[in-house]
Write a structure and sequence with these properties.
Layout (H helix, E strand, L loop, with lengths): L3 E11 L4 H10 L3 E12 L9 E3 L3 H11 L4 E6 L6 H13 E9 L4 E2 L2 E2 L5 H12 L3 E2 L3 H8 L11 H14 L3 E9 L2 E7 L4 E7 L8 H14 L4 H19 L11 H7 L2
Parallel strand pairs: 1-2, 1-4, 4-5, 5-8, 8-9
Antiparallel strand pairs: 2-3, 6-7, 9-10, 10-11
Helix pairs in contact: 1-7, 2-3, 5-6, 7-8, 8-9
The structure holds 3-hydroxy-5-(hydroxymethyl)-2-methylisonicotinaldehyde (PXL).
Length: 272
């Protein structure tokens, strides 16, 4: 039977991130999607100015209450970018009502990159993401997010060591997350991710790409969510998600007009 995922994140109408990438990717891998949009923005908030934002915090409990009255449940709740701190309690207070028994709560604490919080966010978002990570079955932070969640000082990529990554993983596990997938891990000319379940570390590294793009974190997480629900192992999942990002960058890199996201659609097409 096909699995059902509820994805809670914003709709950035233009810019290839959050729900506009999660939905096509999950659907492609045979997952039924349910969405709870946290806000509607004209674009994402990095690299664009004067973007519009319609906050949907007040609508969220009404949508959830209707689902509960209809006995709607899902196999997984997958959260991403959250722009309003009031939404964390709404999600945490309702997640057990919406998740089937044994269902997965997967948190991508999408809030920061390259040592900095995204422009529209503040420390209350960090606190809220931390609360969600404490209850998660899987969390998928990048190195900057892992530092914000643990209080470990961020250091530039050239200074990041195996020990630094290990400390981040151990501290994130101590927070309460059952499984951690740390992304954007660098080793010389390689980049990738480390999975950690409290005992075993699974490291997958591939060739560092010449350019980085916005939205690749959301694509990475969406592939991971799909693969985990489809029963793939941590190692298979990490290989697939890192290869997917490399392929998407290669599809995009020759087009100078396309710098707001990556052409992940071509990768899905090539996988058919
Ligand atoms: O890709 C993460 C993301 C999602 N949604 C919005 C964003 C960002 C990152 O900046 O601005 C609105």
């Amino acid at each position: 039977m096909s699995k059902k995922v509820l994805s809670i994140q914003d709709i950035s109408c233009y810019g290839q991130c959050s729900l506009t990438v999660a939905l096509p990717i999950l659907s492609h891998y045979g997952i039924e999607t349910v969405i709870l949009p946290s806000a509607i923005l004209s674009t994402h908030t990095c690299g664009f100015t004067n973007f519009t934002c319609l906050d949907l915090t007040n609508e969220m409990p009404k949508i959830i209450d209707h689902w509960i009255s209809e006995h709607i449940t899902v196999d997984c709740i997958y959260t991403g970018y959250i722009g309003d701190r009031k939404q964390f309690d709404i999600i945490l207070n309702n997640k057990h009502k919406l998740l089937k028994e044994g269902g997965l709560f997967i948190v991508d604490p999408a809030m920061a990159d390259n040592g900095k919080l995204y422009p529209a966010l503040d420390e209350f978002i960090v606190l809220g993401m931390k609360k969600m990570c404490m209850e998660a079955d899987y969390i998928i932070p990048n190195v900057t997010e892992a530092c914000l969640l643990t209080g470990i000082d961020y250091v530039e990529p050239e200074k990041q060591t195996t020990e630094f990554y290990h400390n981040l993983l151990v501290e994130l596990y101590r927070l309460g997350a059952k499984n951690i997938i740390l992304t954007g891990v660098i080793d010389g000319d390689s980049i990738g991710a480390i999975g950690f379940d409290g005992i075993t570390r699974t490291t997958v590294l591939k060739e560092l790409q010449p350019k980085s793009y916005h939205g690749t974190g959301d694509i990475f997480s969406s592939v991971i969510v799909a693969d985990l629900l489809n029963g793939k192992s941590m190692r298979e999942t990490l290989h697939h998600a890192t290869d997917f990002i490399i392929d998407a960058i290669n599809e995009t890199i020759d087009d100078d007009t396309h710098n707001y996201g990556v052409k992940f659609e071509q990768v899905l097409k090539n996988e058919e």
